[in-house]
Amino acid sequence: MITILRKHHKWLMIVIAILAIPFIFYFSKTDFSAIHQSDLGRIYDRPVTNIEFQRSARLMTLAQMLGLSQLVQDLMMRPMSENEAYANFAFNRIVLDHEARALGIRPSSTEVVTFVKTLLPFQGTSGFDLNKYTEFTQTRLPSLGFTEAQLEELVSDQLVLNRLKDLLGAGLHVAESESAEYYDQVYGKLHLALVRFRDEDFQKDVKITDEDITKYYEAHKAELKTDEKRRVEFVAFAFSEAEKKLTGKERIDALQKLANRSNDFVQAMLEKGAPFSEVAAKFNVPVAATGEFTSATPDPQLASNPQLTQYAFQLKPEEPVSDAIQGPEGFYVLHLLGATPSRPLTLDEAKPKITDALTKERVKQAVATRGADVARTIREAAKAGTPLDKALAQMGLQAERIPPFSIIEKPPAKPEEAKDKKPDVPDLPTIKSAVRELNPGDSSDFIATDKGGLVAMLEKRDPGDPAGFAEAKANFEKNYLQSKRMVVFEEWLHDRRRAAGLQQPTAPTET
After folding, report:
1. Model-level pTM?
2. 373, 381 in Cβ contact below 8 A?
Protein backbone atom coordinates (compact mmCIF):
# COMPACT_ATOMS: atom_id res chain seq x y z
CA MET A 1 0.00 0.00 0.00
CA ILE A 2 2.81 2.44 0.91
CA THR A 3 4.52 1.69 -2.42
CA ILE A 4 1.33 2.42 -4.38
CA LEU A 5 0.86 5.71 -2.55
CA ARG A 6 4.46 6.70 -3.26
CA LYS A 7 4.15 5.97 -6.99
CA HIS A 8 0.87 7.87 -7.40
CA HIS A 9 1.31 10.56 -4.77
CA LYS A 10 1.03 13.47 -7.23
CA TRP A 11 -2.44 12.69 -8.56
CA LEU A 12 -3.56 11.69 -5.09
CA MET A 13 -2.59 15.14 -3.78
CA ILE A 14 -4.61 16.75 -6.60
CA VAL A 15 -7.69 14.72 -5.67
CA ILE A 16 -7.26 15.62 -2.01
CA ALA A 17 -6.91 19.31 -2.87
CA ILE A 18 -10.10 19.21 -4.97
CA LEU A 19 -12.01 17.60 -2.15
CA ALA A 20 -10.62 20.26 0.22
CA ILE A 21 -10.29 18.00 3.21
CA PRO A 22 -6.51 17.78 3.82
CA PHE A 23 -5.34 16.36 7.13
CA ILE A 24 -8.80 16.04 8.73
CA PHE A 25 -7.81 12.83 10.44
CA TYR A 26 -4.07 13.50 10.63
CA PHE A 27 -4.04 13.68 14.41
CA SER A 28 -6.38 10.75 15.04
CA LYS A 29 -4.96 7.21 15.17
CA THR A 30 -8.32 5.53 15.65
CA ASP A 31 -9.70 3.62 12.68
CA PHE A 32 -13.15 5.21 12.42
CA SER A 33 -13.89 3.29 9.24
CA ALA A 34 -14.31 0.25 11.49
CA ILE A 35 -17.29 1.94 13.16
CA HIS A 36 -20.50 1.76 11.15
CA GLN A 37 -23.38 4.20 11.53
CA SER A 38 -25.63 1.56 13.06
CA ASP A 39 -22.96 0.61 15.63
CA LEU A 40 -22.50 3.97 17.33
CA GLY A 41 -25.21 3.60 19.94
CA ARG A 42 -28.12 5.70 21.19
CA ILE A 43 -28.52 8.37 23.83
CA TYR A 44 -31.59 10.38 24.90
CA ASP A 45 -33.58 8.04 22.63
CA ARG A 46 -31.77 9.11 19.47
CA PRO A 47 -28.94 7.56 17.44
CA VAL A 48 -25.43 9.01 17.40
CA THR A 49 -24.36 9.19 13.76
CA ASN A 50 -20.96 8.41 12.36
CA ILE A 51 -20.50 12.04 11.30
CA GLU A 52 -21.31 13.25 14.82
CA PHE A 53 -18.87 10.76 16.32
CA GLN A 54 -16.04 11.76 13.97
CA ARG A 55 -16.62 15.43 14.72
CA SER A 56 -16.38 14.72 18.45
CA ALA A 57 -13.16 12.77 17.91
CA ARG A 58 -11.64 15.76 16.13
CA LEU A 59 -12.86 18.02 18.94
CA MET A 60 -10.99 15.78 21.38
CA THR A 61 -7.85 16.20 19.30
CA LEU A 62 -8.36 19.96 19.30
CA ALA A 63 -8.87 19.96 23.07
CA GLN A 64 -5.50 18.24 23.49
CA MET A 65 -3.85 20.77 21.17
CA LEU A 66 -5.32 23.62 23.23
CA GLY A 67 -4.07 22.16 26.51
CA LEU A 68 -7.58 21.40 27.84
CA SER A 69 -6.26 18.24 29.44
CA GLN A 70 -8.70 18.33 32.37
CA LEU A 71 -11.69 18.39 30.02
CA VAL A 72 -10.31 15.42 28.07
CA GLN A 73 -9.37 13.48 31.20
CA ASP A 74 -12.74 14.01 32.91
CA LEU A 75 -14.81 13.05 29.87
CA MET A 76 -12.70 10.02 28.87
CA MET A 77 -13.54 8.31 32.20
CA ARG A 78 -10.42 6.09 32.55
CA PRO A 79 -10.78 4.24 29.23
CA MET A 80 -9.40 0.76 28.61
CA SER A 81 -8.53 1.49 24.96
CA GLU A 82 -8.11 4.37 22.55
CA ASN A 83 -11.46 3.63 20.90
CA GLU A 84 -13.18 3.68 24.29
CA ALA A 85 -11.56 7.04 25.05
CA TYR A 86 -13.02 8.60 21.89
CA ALA A 87 -16.42 6.99 22.49
CA ASN A 88 -16.59 8.17 26.12
CA PHE A 89 -15.59 11.68 25.11
CA ALA A 90 -18.31 11.78 22.45
CA PHE A 91 -21.15 10.50 24.62
CA ASN A 92 -20.12 12.42 27.74
CA ARG A 93 -20.03 15.72 25.85
CA ILE A 94 -23.66 15.09 24.90
CA VAL A 95 -24.52 14.35 28.54
CA LEU A 96 -22.62 17.44 29.73
CA ASP A 97 -24.45 19.69 27.28
CA HIS A 98 -27.86 18.19 28.14
CA GLU A 99 -27.37 18.57 31.91
CA ALA A 100 -25.92 22.08 31.59
CA ARG A 101 -29.00 23.21 29.68
CA ALA A 102 -31.28 21.62 32.28
CA LEU A 103 -29.41 23.42 35.08
CA GLY A 104 -29.21 26.71 33.21
CA ILE A 105 -25.40 26.70 33.13
CA ARG A 106 -24.11 28.61 30.13
CA PRO A 107 -20.92 30.72 30.07
CA SER A 108 -21.16 34.22 28.68
CA SER A 109 -19.21 35.36 25.62
CA THR A 110 -16.99 37.48 27.86
CA GLU A 111 -16.12 34.46 30.02
CA VAL A 112 -15.26 32.41 26.94
CA VAL A 113 -13.03 35.12 25.45
CA THR A 114 -11.27 35.68 28.77
CA PHE A 115 -10.55 31.94 29.11
CA VAL A 116 -9.34 31.65 25.51
CA LYS A 117 -6.68 34.24 26.28
CA THR A 118 -5.27 32.01 29.03
CA LEU A 119 -4.74 28.95 26.80
CA LEU A 120 -1.11 27.84 26.59
CA PRO A 121 -0.72 27.78 22.77
CA PHE A 122 -1.58 31.49 22.66
CA GLN A 123 0.90 32.68 25.30
CA GLY A 124 3.87 34.88 24.48
CA THR A 125 6.53 36.45 26.65
CA SER A 126 4.07 38.96 28.09
CA GLY A 127 0.82 37.01 28.10
CA PHE A 128 -1.75 36.55 25.34
CA ASP A 129 -0.14 36.76 21.89
CA LEU A 130 -2.59 37.72 19.14
CA ASN A 131 -0.17 36.57 16.42
CA LYS A 132 -0.03 33.05 17.88
CA TYR A 133 -3.81 32.99 18.13
CA THR A 134 -4.17 34.14 14.52
CA GLU A 135 -1.64 31.57 13.26
CA PHE A 136 -3.44 28.79 15.16
CA THR A 137 -6.89 29.73 13.88
CA GLN A 138 -5.68 30.12 10.30
CA THR A 139 -3.53 26.98 10.07
CA ARG A 140 -4.29 24.43 12.78
CA LEU A 141 -8.08 24.79 12.92
CA PRO A 142 -8.65 24.36 9.17
CA SER A 143 -6.50 21.20 9.21
CA LEU A 144 -9.18 19.67 11.45
CA GLY A 145 -12.06 21.13 9.44
CA PHE A 146 -12.86 23.65 12.20
CA THR A 147 -13.20 27.39 12.75
CA GLU A 148 -12.98 29.63 15.81
CA ALA A 149 -16.52 28.54 16.67
CA GLN A 150 -15.34 25.03 17.61
CA LEU A 151 -12.49 26.47 19.68
CA GLU A 152 -15.01 28.54 21.64
CA GLU A 153 -17.31 25.50 21.88
CA LEU A 154 -14.61 23.52 23.69
CA VAL A 155 -13.74 26.41 25.99
CA SER A 156 -17.44 26.68 26.84
CA ASP A 157 -17.44 22.94 27.66
CA GLN A 158 -14.48 23.44 30.00
CA LEU A 159 -16.20 26.35 31.78
CA VAL A 160 -19.43 24.34 32.11
CA LEU A 161 -17.49 21.41 33.53
CA ASN A 162 -15.71 23.65 36.06
CA ARG A 163 -18.98 25.20 37.22
CA LEU A 164 -20.72 21.84 37.41
CA LYS A 165 -17.94 20.31 39.52
CA ASP A 166 -18.06 23.31 41.85
CA LEU A 167 -21.82 22.87 42.16
CA LEU A 168 -21.56 19.14 42.88
CA GLY A 169 -18.79 19.69 45.43
CA ALA A 170 -20.42 22.61 47.22
CA GLY A 171 -21.19 20.55 50.33
CA LEU A 172 -17.73 19.00 50.67
CA HIS A 173 -15.41 20.10 53.46
CA VAL A 174 -12.27 18.97 55.29
CA ALA A 175 -12.30 18.46 59.05
CA GLU A 176 -9.62 20.31 61.04
CA SER A 177 -8.46 17.00 62.51
CA GLU A 178 -7.85 15.59 59.01
CA SER A 179 -5.65 18.55 58.09
CA ALA A 180 -3.66 18.26 61.33
CA GLU A 181 -3.19 14.51 60.88
CA TYR A 182 -2.05 14.98 57.29
CA TYR A 183 0.40 17.71 58.30
CA ASP A 184 2.09 15.65 60.99
CA GLN A 185 2.13 12.61 58.71
CA VAL A 186 3.99 14.24 55.85
CA TYR A 187 5.91 17.09 57.52
CA GLY A 188 6.77 15.50 60.87
CA LYS A 189 10.24 14.02 61.29
CA LEU A 190 10.35 10.23 61.17
CA HIS A 191 12.92 8.26 63.17
CA LEU A 192 13.44 4.88 61.51
CA ALA A 193 15.42 1.74 62.11
CA LEU A 194 16.05 -0.48 59.09
CA VAL A 195 17.07 -4.05 58.56
CA ARG A 196 18.53 -4.50 55.08
CA PHE A 197 18.79 -7.73 53.11
CA ARG A 198 21.27 -7.73 50.22
CA ASP A 199 21.07 -10.07 47.25
CA GLU A 200 24.79 -10.81 47.32
CA ASP A 201 24.52 -12.19 50.87
CA PHE A 202 22.15 -14.90 49.64
CA GLN A 203 23.80 -15.79 46.34
CA LYS A 204 26.37 -18.12 47.90
CA ASP A 205 23.59 -20.38 49.16
CA VAL A 206 21.91 -20.73 45.76
CA LYS A 207 22.91 -23.82 43.83
CA ILE A 208 21.73 -24.38 40.25
CA THR A 209 21.99 -27.99 39.02
CA ASP A 210 22.06 -29.34 35.47
CA GLU A 211 18.65 -30.82 36.15
CA ASP A 212 17.31 -27.36 37.05
CA ILE A 213 18.73 -25.92 33.83
CA THR A 214 17.31 -28.70 31.65
CA LYS A 215 13.88 -28.39 33.25
CA TYR A 216 13.86 -24.61 32.75
CA TYR A 217 15.04 -25.01 29.15
CA GLU A 218 12.21 -27.41 28.29
CA ALA A 219 9.62 -25.14 29.88
CA HIS A 220 10.89 -21.96 28.20
CA LYS A 221 12.31 -23.30 24.95
CA ALA A 222 10.05 -21.10 22.82
CA GLU A 223 11.34 -17.96 24.55
CA LEU A 224 15.03 -18.83 24.47
CA LYS A 225 16.17 -17.43 21.15
CA THR A 226 19.00 -15.42 19.74
CA ASP A 227 18.30 -11.75 19.08
CA GLU A 228 17.36 -10.80 15.54
CA LYS A 229 20.07 -8.67 13.94
CA ARG A 230 20.00 -6.03 11.23
CA ARG A 231 22.54 -4.13 9.17
CA VAL A 232 21.52 -0.96 7.33
CA GLU A 233 22.90 1.98 5.42
CA PHE A 234 21.30 5.39 5.57
CA VAL A 235 21.35 8.99 4.41
CA ALA A 236 20.56 12.05 6.51
CA PHE A 237 18.93 15.25 5.27
CA ALA A 238 19.90 17.39 8.25
CA PHE A 239 20.07 21.04 9.25
CA SER A 240 23.28 22.89 8.60
CA GLU A 241 24.98 24.52 11.58
CA ALA A 242 23.37 27.84 10.64
CA GLU A 243 19.90 26.28 10.24
CA LYS A 244 20.09 24.68 13.68
CA LYS A 245 19.88 28.17 15.18
CA LEU A 246 16.66 29.07 13.35
CA THR A 247 13.38 29.42 15.26
CA GLY A 248 9.69 29.89 14.52
CA LYS A 249 8.52 30.05 10.91
CA GLU A 250 12.05 30.12 9.51
CA ARG A 251 12.85 26.80 11.20
CA ILE A 252 9.57 25.30 9.98
CA ASP A 253 10.32 26.42 6.40
CA ALA A 254 13.82 24.93 6.56
CA LEU A 255 12.43 21.69 7.96
CA GLN A 256 9.86 21.55 5.16
CA LYS A 257 12.63 21.83 2.55
CA LEU A 258 14.44 18.89 4.17
CA ALA A 259 11.18 16.92 4.21
CA ASN A 260 10.66 17.59 0.51
CA ARG A 261 14.20 16.48 -0.38
CA SER A 262 13.97 13.31 1.71
CA ASN A 263 10.58 12.42 0.18
CA ASP A 264 12.00 13.02 -3.31
CA PHE A 265 14.85 10.66 -2.40
CA VAL A 266 12.37 7.96 -1.31
CA GLN A 267 10.44 8.48 -4.54
CA ALA A 268 13.63 8.06 -6.57
CA MET A 269 14.40 4.79 -4.77
CA LEU A 270 11.10 3.37 -6.03
CA GLU A 271 12.47 3.18 -9.52
CA LYS A 272 13.21 -0.45 -10.31
CA GLY A 273 16.83 -1.38 -9.65
CA ALA A 274 17.79 2.05 -8.30
CA PRO A 275 21.03 1.59 -6.30
CA PHE A 276 20.95 3.37 -2.96
CA SER A 277 24.49 4.75 -3.31
CA GLU A 278 23.85 6.15 -6.81
CA VAL A 279 20.63 7.88 -5.76
CA ALA A 280 22.47 9.31 -2.76
CA ALA A 281 25.19 10.65 -5.05
CA LYS A 282 22.57 12.38 -7.23
CA PHE A 283 21.15 14.05 -4.12
CA ASN A 284 24.66 14.89 -2.90
CA VAL A 285 24.22 13.22 0.50
CA PRO A 286 26.78 10.85 2.05
CA VAL A 287 25.87 7.23 2.81
CA ALA A 288 26.69 5.78 6.24
CA ALA A 289 26.59 2.06 7.04
CA THR A 290 26.15 0.26 10.35
CA GLY A 291 27.50 -3.00 11.65
CA GLU A 292 25.16 -5.75 12.81
CA PHE A 293 22.98 -4.65 15.74
CA THR A 294 19.99 -5.80 17.74
CA SER A 295 16.96 -3.85 18.89
CA ALA A 296 18.27 -4.00 22.46
CA THR A 297 21.76 -2.85 21.48
CA PRO A 298 21.45 -0.32 18.62
CA ASP A 299 24.34 0.65 16.43
CA PRO A 300 26.07 3.77 17.87
CA GLN A 301 25.15 5.74 14.74
CA LEU A 302 21.44 5.13 15.40
CA ALA A 303 21.43 5.23 19.19
CA SER A 304 20.68 8.96 19.46
CA ASN A 305 17.35 8.49 17.64
CA PRO A 306 15.47 5.36 18.87
CA GLN A 307 13.01 5.65 15.97
CA LEU A 308 15.72 4.69 13.51
CA THR A 309 16.34 1.34 15.21
CA GLN A 310 12.60 0.67 15.38
CA TYR A 311 12.20 1.38 11.66
CA ALA A 312 15.26 -0.73 10.83
CA PHE A 313 13.53 -3.80 12.24
CA GLN A 314 10.39 -3.09 10.21
CA LEU A 315 12.23 -3.24 6.88
CA LYS A 316 11.88 -6.37 4.74
CA PRO A 317 13.94 -7.71 1.82
CA GLU A 318 10.99 -7.07 -0.51
CA GLU A 319 10.61 -3.49 0.85
CA PRO A 320 14.15 -2.58 1.91
CA VAL A 321 13.83 1.23 1.90
CA SER A 322 12.13 3.16 4.68
CA ASP A 323 9.97 6.26 4.41
CA ALA A 324 11.56 9.54 5.44
CA ILE A 325 11.98 9.35 9.22
CA GLN A 326 11.98 12.63 11.10
CA GLY A 327 14.61 13.18 13.77
CA PRO A 328 15.48 16.16 15.98
CA GLU A 329 17.60 17.84 13.29
CA GLY A 330 16.19 16.54 10.01
CA PHE A 331 15.14 13.40 8.16
CA TYR A 332 16.68 9.96 7.56
CA VAL A 333 16.11 7.25 4.97
CA LEU A 334 17.22 3.70 5.77
CA HIS A 335 18.16 0.88 3.41
CA LEU A 336 18.31 -2.71 4.61
CA LEU A 337 21.64 -4.38 3.86
CA GLY A 338 21.12 -7.64 5.71
CA ALA A 339 19.04 -9.41 8.34
CA THR A 340 19.99 -12.29 10.59
CA PRO A 341 16.76 -13.88 11.84
CA SER A 342 16.30 -15.05 15.39
CA ARG A 343 16.77 -18.79 16.00
CA PRO A 344 16.22 -21.10 18.98
CA LEU A 345 19.15 -21.43 21.38
CA THR A 346 20.62 -24.85 22.02
CA LEU A 347 20.77 -26.04 25.62
CA ASP A 348 24.49 -25.25 25.83
CA GLU A 349 23.99 -21.78 24.34
CA ALA A 350 21.11 -21.05 26.70
CA LYS A 351 22.87 -22.37 29.81
CA PRO A 352 24.48 -19.05 30.93
CA LYS A 353 21.22 -17.14 30.46
CA ILE A 354 19.22 -19.83 32.28
CA THR A 355 21.71 -19.99 35.16
CA ASP A 356 21.54 -16.24 35.59
CA ALA A 357 17.73 -16.17 35.47
CA LEU A 358 17.35 -19.02 37.97
CA THR A 359 19.93 -17.52 40.32
CA LYS A 360 18.20 -14.12 40.36
CA GLU A 361 14.81 -15.73 40.82
CA ARG A 362 15.90 -17.89 43.75
CA VAL A 363 17.86 -15.09 45.41
CA LYS A 364 14.78 -12.86 45.26
CA GLN A 365 12.67 -15.66 46.74
CA ALA A 366 15.18 -16.26 49.55
CA VAL A 367 15.45 -12.54 50.36
CA ALA A 368 11.66 -12.11 50.39
CA THR A 369 11.16 -15.17 52.62
CA ARG A 370 13.81 -14.01 55.08
CA GLY A 371 12.42 -10.46 55.08
CA ALA A 372 8.86 -11.64 55.75
CA ASP A 373 10.08 -13.83 58.65
CA VAL A 374 11.98 -10.92 60.21
CA ALA A 375 9.01 -8.54 59.85
CA ARG A 376 6.73 -11.08 61.56
CA THR A 377 9.23 -11.70 64.38
CA ILE A 378 9.67 -7.95 65.01
CA ARG A 379 5.91 -7.47 65.32
CA GLU A 380 5.63 -10.38 67.75
CA ALA A 381 8.53 -8.99 69.81
CA ALA A 382 6.89 -5.54 69.93
CA LYS A 383 3.65 -7.08 71.23
CA ALA A 384 5.64 -8.91 73.91
CA GLY A 385 7.41 -5.68 74.92
CA THR A 386 10.84 -6.88 73.76
CA PRO A 387 13.13 -3.96 72.76
CA LEU A 388 13.87 -3.82 69.04
CA ASP A 389 17.66 -4.15 69.30
CA LYS A 390 17.35 -7.15 71.57
CA ALA A 391 14.87 -8.85 69.23
CA LEU A 392 17.17 -8.25 66.26
CA ALA A 393 20.24 -9.50 68.16
CA GLN A 394 18.45 -12.76 68.84
CA MET A 395 18.12 -13.18 65.07
CA GLY A 396 21.75 -12.24 64.45
CA LEU A 397 20.77 -8.90 62.95
CA GLN A 398 21.56 -5.28 63.65
CA ALA A 399 19.44 -2.18 63.03
CA GLU A 400 20.56 0.58 60.70
CA ARG A 401 19.36 3.95 61.95
CA ILE A 402 19.12 6.65 59.31
CA PRO A 403 18.92 10.44 59.81
CA PRO A 404 15.39 11.66 60.62
CA PHE A 405 13.44 12.80 57.57
CA SER A 406 10.01 14.04 56.50
CA ILE A 407 7.85 12.53 53.79
CA ILE A 408 7.83 15.99 52.18
CA GLU A 409 10.99 17.95 52.84
CA LYS A 410 10.67 21.73 52.87
CA PRO A 411 13.19 23.56 50.68
CA PRO A 412 15.95 25.31 52.67
CA ALA A 413 15.11 28.88 53.63
CA LYS A 414 18.69 30.06 53.02
CA PRO A 415 21.17 29.02 50.30
CA GLU A 416 23.82 28.14 52.87
CA GLU A 417 21.48 25.60 54.45
CA ALA A 418 21.43 23.63 51.19
CA LYS A 419 25.16 22.94 51.64
CA ASP A 420 24.42 21.06 54.85
CA LYS A 421 22.23 18.43 53.22
CA LYS A 422 22.17 15.12 54.99
CA PRO A 423 23.77 12.21 53.13
CA ASP A 424 21.55 10.35 50.71
CA VAL A 425 19.82 7.23 52.05
CA PRO A 426 19.57 4.35 49.55
CA ASP A 427 15.98 3.53 48.55
CA LEU A 428 14.60 6.55 50.44
CA PRO A 429 11.61 7.15 48.09
CA THR A 430 10.58 3.48 48.49
CA ILE A 431 11.02 3.73 52.25
CA LYS A 432 8.90 6.89 52.43
CA SER A 433 6.08 5.25 50.51
CA ALA A 434 6.11 2.20 52.81
CA VAL A 435 6.24 3.98 56.19
CA ARG A 436 4.04 7.02 55.58
CA GLU A 437 1.03 5.64 57.46
CA LEU A 438 2.89 3.68 60.15
CA ASN A 439 2.36 4.55 63.81
CA PRO A 440 5.30 4.71 66.25
CA GLY A 441 6.25 1.15 67.24
CA ASP A 442 4.94 -0.37 63.98
CA SER A 443 7.08 -2.12 61.40
CA SER A 444 6.54 -2.43 57.68
CA ASP A 445 6.11 -5.58 55.68
CA PHE A 446 9.10 -6.72 53.65
CA ILE A 447 9.94 -4.06 51.05
CA ALA A 448 11.65 -5.25 47.87
CA THR A 449 14.41 -3.03 46.46
CA ASP A 450 16.66 -3.20 43.39
CA LYS A 451 19.51 -4.81 45.32
CA GLY A 452 17.54 -6.85 47.84
CA GLY A 453 14.99 -5.60 50.34
CA LEU A 454 14.41 -4.21 53.80
CA VAL A 455 12.07 -3.99 56.78
CA ALA A 456 11.49 -0.57 58.36
CA MET A 457 10.49 0.16 61.97
CA LEU A 458 9.06 3.55 62.95
CA GLU A 459 10.50 4.36 66.38
CA LYS A 460 9.23 7.93 66.70
CA ARG A 461 7.41 10.64 64.75
CA ASP A 462 8.06 14.27 65.70
CA PRO A 463 5.19 16.73 65.08
CA GLY A 464 5.51 19.05 62.09
CA ASP A 465 6.70 22.61 62.61
CA PRO A 466 3.59 24.64 63.55
CA ALA A 467 4.92 27.60 61.56
CA GLY A 468 4.20 25.81 58.28
CA PHE A 469 0.79 24.43 59.18
CA ALA A 470 -1.39 27.20 57.72
CA GLU A 471 0.20 27.04 54.26
CA ALA A 472 0.25 23.22 54.18
CA LYS A 473 -3.36 23.11 55.42
CA ALA A 474 -4.52 25.33 52.56
CA ASN A 475 -2.72 23.22 49.95
CA PHE A 476 -3.96 19.96 51.46
CA GLU A 477 -7.57 21.10 51.59
CA LYS A 478 -7.38 22.36 48.01
CA ASN A 479 -6.01 19.05 46.69
CA TYR A 480 -8.25 16.95 48.95
CA LEU A 481 -11.40 18.76 47.86
CA GLN A 482 -10.32 18.59 44.23
CA SER A 483 -9.98 14.81 44.39
CA LYS A 484 -13.29 14.52 46.25
CA ARG A 485 -15.01 16.66 43.64
CA MET A 486 -13.58 14.39 40.96
CA VAL A 487 -15.04 11.31 42.68
CA VAL A 488 -18.42 13.01 43.08
CA PHE A 489 -18.38 14.12 39.45
CA GLU A 490 -17.56 10.61 38.20
CA GLU A 491 -20.42 9.13 40.21
CA TRP A 492 -22.76 11.85 38.95
CA LEU A 493 -21.67 11.26 35.34
CA HIS A 494 -22.26 7.51 35.60
CA ASP A 495 -25.73 8.20 36.98
CA ARG A 496 -26.55 10.73 34.25
CA ARG A 497 -25.39 8.33 31.53
CA ARG A 498 -27.81 5.74 32.86
CA ALA A 499 -30.60 8.34 32.98
CA ALA A 500 -29.80 9.26 29.36
CA GLY A 501 -30.49 5.66 28.32
CA LEU A 502 -27.03 5.32 26.81
CA GLN A 503 -26.74 2.21 24.66
CA GLN A 504 -23.09 1.90 23.74
CA PRO A 505 -21.85 -1.08 21.69
CA THR A 506 -18.55 -2.81 22.30
CA ALA A 507 -15.71 -0.65 21.02
CA PRO A 508 -14.38 -1.86 17.66
CA THR A 509 -11.03 -3.55 17.49
CA GLU A 510 -8.18 -1.19 16.62
CA THR A 511 -6.29 -1.92 13.43
Report:
1. 0.57
2. no
